[in-house]
Amino acid sequence: MCGIVGAVAQRNVVPVLLEGLKRLEYRGYDSCGVAVHADGDLQRARSTHRVAELEREVQDTALAGFTGIAHTRWATHGAPATHNAHPHFSGQSRGKARIALVHNGIIENHDELREELEAAGYVFESQTDTEVIAHLIDHLYSADLFEAVQAAVRRLEGAYAIAVFCQDEPHRVVGARQGSPLVVGCGQNENFLASDALALAGTTDQIIYLEDGDVVDLQLSRVWIVDAQGNEVKREVHTVQIHTGAAELGPYRHYMQKEIFEQPRAVGDTLQDIQSITPELFGDGAYDVFKTIDRVLILACGTSYYAGMTARYWIESVAKIPVNVEIASEYRYRDSVPDPRTLVVTISQSGETADTLAALKHAQSQGMEHTLTICNVGTSAMVRECKLSYLTRAGVEIGVASTKAFTTQLTGLFLLTLALAQVKGRINETQEHDYLKALRHLPVAITAVLALEPQIMAWADRFASKENALFLGRGMHYPIAMEGALKLKEISYIHAEAYPAGELKHGPLALVTDQMPVVTIAPRDELLEKLKSNMQEVRARGGELYVFADADTRITASPGMHVIRMPENYGKLSPILHTIPLQLLAYHAACARGTDVDKPRNLAKSVTVE
Ligand code: G6P
């Protein structure tokens, strides 16, 4: 959620910290801040604006130092205000700040700790749970920051990644993690911390992924890690190729638009050069796992959850294996009936979503050991936790609203469907060959749909003045309608709901007036005639239909019925193509309303808190 950067070096670290923050800003943008050790004092700058503003402020005040930490915030405890912005200091009530700290996560026992620290004389300046940690470390400090942090984290309940430094120890930054991501970047006589290796691109490619319970001592030429028990541990140093090219906008107005148009490439890359379907695409031992399992449980959040819902239609119809799809934050807390012969599939763009990770661990703790992830980040906790994986190759996705991650997830999930069907003997070679051919043609088919942008822009202008919209789909296009509604609401702030079209008459039809645009996904499939009847139900109540209809559906425009013609029906892969115009509709409606498309209010890209 929040983004953390820390550095200890022999040069001014402020540019590295700010560059890191810019790369992490998509994780949360309610406020940002930086603190350094300068001239024997702790100094900081904080802003409720974006990192670019903070950078101007820092330049004006010439803030500089060899040791520092920085943070971009997604507010949980306390409003997005400067006094709640990180870094938080402790010790200033004694006249001089001694501890500076940034935090990502939620401290569940913060009330209790706050009372205790107030009783010890600490005065709180913010409403955050974070300030509690700063004061706790200060309270426990006696000449060794590393020791104080180890003692402090033993008192914390909840999730955290923290970076701390101390006025008395100018060449040291200490980090710790439990449930929230934190990496170490190793340099030559300089070392770094960050919540994502992306933040350190261009600074170092030598990355250590800390594990839950780790506390790390960073000095100029030393990286020392202990585990939750205080024992020294060696963690592997990975050379990580981080693509910074994703940060360039090129000719596009927003990252979201760029990412929508990258989909032919992203889907093509995700398919790599797959010559044939084999379970080993998902990792060593996949054949044995696929042979053993007789049901699938999909766990995910947000857009990834809709990818899972689509996959259920595919897996049940092609591989004939029963599938359950669960919202991770619900699954982790509900009583369910575990079955060890289940393939547990997590879907995640980031691979760091706290609820999905916790749901995975919950499934594992229930004896379900066959785990697989469809994930976009190879170095993420999700990939490390799951036995099997398939990496989507969307590239870095910056826009908070997921686009290319979704279509590449669907691509990976269709491959999974085929691999499962093959192992279970549910498809023959000809079918396999035909499906592969259709998959390989996807980049071209998506390019053709992207060419519809001008027509969709004209529709988007009409949507911009509305406050509500309905999305209808049937069968495997119902999750696509849900994804379309989510896209519209999250970036344009138009309230949008999706329904399976057959359900319309059981409630939502009451909302239909001439003020209600009804977006309809109309592929030429076995449900088409039923869908046409549902569309008539809307027209009869004066509702205005905006229909994305396959070319061979014989749906034509008439008053109150607007039609954009899609290519011929694309069979089982049709949901991937029908996603594209809904992304463009949401994008252009948001542009017409003048919202902050890439950073919609109150949201964050990577949700690493519960
Ligand atoms: C956030 C993002 C969504 C994303 C969801 C799940 O809500 O804004 O775009 O779908 O998290 O994230 P994940 O990284 O697990 O796919």
Care to describe what's here?
It is a single chain. This protein is an alpha/beta fold. The chain folds into three domains: 3-246, Aminohydrolase, N-terminal nucleophile (Ntn) domain (Glutamine Phosphoribosylpyrophosphate, subunit 1, domain 1, 4-Layer Sandwich); 250-448, Glucose-6-phosphate isomerase like protein, domain 1 (Rossmann fold, 3-Layer(aba) Sandwich); 451-597, 3-Layer(aba) Sandwich (Rossmann fold). Helices cover 35% and strands 23% of the residues. It has 18 helices and 24 strands. The longest helix has 22 residues, at 429-450. The model has no long low-confidence stretch (mean pLDDT 95). The structure holds 6-O-phosphono-alpha-D-glucopyranose (G6P). 6-O-phosphono-alpha-D-glucopyranose (G6P) is lined by residues 301-304, 348-350, 353, 356, 400, 402, 603, 605-607.
